[in-house]
Automatic annotation (TrEMBL):
Species of provenance: Litoreibacter arenae DSM 19593
EC category: oxidoreductase
Top-level taxon: Bacteria
Substrates-to-products reaction catalysed: prephenate + NAD(+) = 3-(4-hydroxyphenyl)pyruvate + CO2 + NADH
GO molecular function: NAD+ binding; prephenate dehydrogenase (NAD+) activity; prephenate dehydrogenase (NADP+) activity
Name the record gives this protein: prephenate dehydrogenase
Keywords, alphabetical: Amino-acid biosynthesis, Aromatic amino acid biosynthesis, NAD, Oxidoreductase, Tyrosine biosynthesis
Similarity annotation: Belongs to the prephenate/arogenate dehydrogenase family.
Pfam families xref list: PDH_C, PDH_N
NCBIfam families noted in UniProt: PRK07502.1
Biological or metabolic pathway of the protein: Amino-acid biosynthesis; L-tyrosine biosynthesis; (4-hydroxyphenyl)pyruvate from prephenate (NAD(+) route): step 1/1
Entry EC number(s): 1.3.1.12
Amino acid sequence: MAQLYDRVALIGLGLIAGSLFYAMKRAGLAGVVVGYARSAETRDVAREIGLCDRVVDSAAEAVEGADLVILCVPVGAMGAVAAEIAPHLKQGALVSDVGSTKGAVIEAVAPHLPEGVHFIPAHPLAGTEQSGPRSGFAELFDNRWCLLTPLEGTDPEVLERYKELWRQMGSNVDEMDAPHHDLVLAVTSHTPHLIAYTMVGVADDLGRVTDSEVVQYSAAGFRDFTRIAASDPTMWRDVFLANKDATLEILGRFTEELFALQRAIRTGDGEQLHDYFTRTRAIRRGIIEAGQDTDAPNFGRNAK
Ligand SMILES: NC(=O)C1=CN([C@@H]2O[C@H](COP(=O)(O)OP(=O)(O)OC[C@H]3O[C@@H](n4cnc5c(N)ncnc54)[C@H](O)[C@@H]3O)[C@@H](O)[C@H]2O)C=CC1
Ligand SMILES: O=C(O)C(=O)Cc1ccc(O)cc1
């Protein structure tokens, strides 16, 4: 496969940066990939396991001469990293990020970037509850969406080349504006994570439910909650602080619906509960019929 960028810099060496490195190497998309992470311990691990062709000790050195720079740090750290690298970026370089929120990242990063440097924010809808330099793998982006939120006036050739990178790493690529992205993700990812955190916290608070009972008798739904609630605390703290407005909007709607269901249970309104669950069941079936749940055990078999 054709090389798309001669020199790539990855800032932050965790799950996403690691997966980017292996996915780029798998398809021969990058010449040299240089990495940097803030902690010396992470850089040592990266060197030990061969994560990146070269690991350097400053962000400035990592971006020197890079054609593509991808910021792979928690969203709350994006602005500071952009300020640090800005004076060292090559003219014509493309800066991108993989942050889970887009509006706040654009606001934090764009003002630091000099004239003549391109900026295309990205968000791969692919991840796990794992983090750190040992957690990345080449297949992470296969058959997953990558959402780009290009700013007005983005150079179409620079955009097309970057889209091609994601496609060659296995992703399907789509574009949307940042406010829309942040609202969609508040519904599909951020609020569900908060609900999982809360449910696991509630189980933990219940004195009568011992740890071993929680583990032994976990049904699939609760098991998924515990997996999600094991996600990186720094990353998720930053997501909620950065996507405050959209998350609060969706949480408001969520609690209204929850109270309505709570009332239906209290008053014994079985019809309301049944109607609600019938509606939500149809949504799940729609997702599977559209072939959009690649994790479903019966994916591709037109399951009902
Ligand atoms: N984990 C997931 O499932 C997904 C995460 N994302 C986004 O990708 C980004 C990275 O997430 P992960 O790779 O999961 O995190 P991670 O925790 O595995 O890695 C983050 C890396 O950034 C480094 N770092 C933190 N602050 C830094 C700073 N100021 N300067 C330089 N390095 C710094 C850490 O040392 C670590 O190496 C986040 O913005 C997250 O919102 C996007 C899609 C999925
Ligand atoms: O592990 C899971 O279930 C996820 O939801 C992964 C994930 C986490 C954050 C993102 O911005 C995108 C994907």
